[in-house]
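The instructor's notes for this session suggest beginning with a concrete chain rather than abstract definitions. Hand out the sequence below and ask the class to guess, before any prediction is shown, which regions might be ordered.
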Amino acid sequence: MSLTARPIVWSETFIVHGVAILTGPLTSVKEQATGAWASALAERGFGALPFDHRYYGESAGRPRQLENPAAKIADIQAAAASLHSDRRFASTPMFAVGICAGGGYMARAVTAEPLFCAFAGIAVCYAHATEQCCAGYSPSK
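After discussion, reveal the predicted structure:
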């Protein structure tokens, strides 16, 4: 399987504190949430690797847009192995960042991959939308 990643996002002006592998929402591609978070991490001195899971974006695989959690977890582990084999990052601490649904995939990948030294999950709550859809809801009804 061929995965397509953006080049490692990092800033030459900072010491790289570590490198993060990022995975995002269900149908997200590397130019969306993970790319934005990768840029933010790079500004703070971290290398970051956003990538397209198989079946998504520029990566290979058919059928397209197939939601396959086991494959996504395997892709995360492959990304970790690839970074670890790169001599620039082999001794650098490796972090796992899961955004939205990617938090679940990443949490599972981290439990099976000893290369990761830390995990962060990012989830948001859209308070206004929640208030609108739940207006009038009561657990006692």
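Then share the key points. The chain has one domain: 4-133. The CA atoms of residues 77 and 113 lie 7 Å apart.
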